Amino acid sequence: MRDSLRDRLGRNDEMDSLPPHALLKIISIPEPEQASPWWLILRRMAYALILIVVSSTVVYLDRDGYRGVSTFLDAVYYSAVSLSTTGYGDITPVTQEARLLNVLLITPMRVIFLVLLVGTTLSVLTEESRKALKIRRWRKRMRNHTVVIGYGTKGRAATTALLADGVPADRIVVVDSDPDALAHASSRGLVTVQGSATKSDVLKLAGVTRARAVVVAPNMDDTAVLITLSVREIAPSATIVASVRESENSHLVRQSGADSVVISSETAGRMLGLATVSPSVTGMMEDLLSPDEGFSIAERLVDEDEVGGNPRNLEDIVLGVVRSGELYRIDSVEAETVEPGDRILYIRRISDADGK
Fold first, then answer.
1. What are the RCK N-terminal domain coordinates in residue numbering (predicted)?
2. pLDDT by 10-residue block (mean), the chain, 356 residues
3. Does one domain contain both 150 and 88?
């Protein structure tokens, strides 16, 4: 099965080798809110007027060195036609000092004035260069981040949980082929990569090879299998959490390399069945699964003063103990005593989130 899936995935690494400027339409790194275009235009006009005023003042103060300048309006007129490179020639510098002043001051100001006039074009070019440089730096520095593949209902809920648990938005990378979904993710401050996650080169663009964890949440189970296999192949040490709709596909995803599998249809079905018998319990379960209100299930490292004690006696409501990557329920023998390096699974109050 692995060989046939590898054939379907292919070995195309062309996108991963593209230069940063060729990835501007593929990788999107959130930017701070930009000023209004009208404000930018007004600011450039103000700069241009300042240059004209400065130039006019300098010319008027040295009006004896110019032929045709007797009033300040003459100086403004000369500055306007000179800085805009129109140059009618009716006013000219005649003394050596005035000509030197034109070379050292008016000419640089003329260049700056022209830059302001074509500022929009230059701004676009500069912006693309800046974004390309930012992508280059991001690809070099991004480490131990979380990649969310698929930004549908499950992917959005996963990112919401990550953000609520304190993961910075710039440490989450979303991979999807839907531009609208990526636009929504970008509006939340998430880095986005556009493309099919079944392609290894797209996964490499998202930094999967250096990621701490990968959430696989596509809409189709067979796609989840393909993506999981590809992720595990290029990122052997990453933690992979995958979602499938049907339980019979769970073992395929595990065989492909997933560390954990969430069965969305069964989970929803259990909640529906539970709601018919005990609606209040369902409400509490939804509260525990909603990281931004009420209570939530969290994990933390044990404190030094807690080592050697019984987790049942802790202030927190403990559900289990994680030791060497293995989870032991609170009623198991292994969880009777807390050992150094253990992590406890507990119910956290959202108001206490910053204190734990």
1. 143-263
2. 51 60 66 59 78 89 87 88 78 83 81 70 60 75 92 89 85 93 90 89 89 93 92 92 88 91 74 71 66 71 88 86 86 88 82 48
3. no
151 and 230 fall within a common domain: yes
Q: Which residues pair with 345 in a beta bridge?
A: 299, 320
Q: Which two tokens stand for residue 200?
A: 């290894």
41 assigned to some structural domain: yes
* CB-CB contact of 27 with 193 (8 Å): yes
Specify the amino acid at residue 206: A
CA 194/CA 7 separation, integer angstroms: 22
**Domain containing 107: what range?**
37-120
Count other C-beta atoms under 10 Å from residue 65's C-beta: 19
End-to-end CA gap in the chain? 44
Answer whether residue 8 is part of any domain: no
Spatial distance between the Cα atoms of 159 and 147, rounded to a whole number of angstroms: 10
What CATH number does the domain containing 157 carry? 3.40.50.720
Provide the 8-state DSSP code for 321: E
Instruction: Specify the CATH number for the domain of residue 62.
Output: 1.10.287.70
Residue 325 sits at the vertex; the CA angle it makes with 319 and 331, to the nearest 5 degrees, is: 30
Note the pTM of the prediction, 2 decimals.
0.59
User: Do 146 and 252 have their domain in common?
Assistant: yes
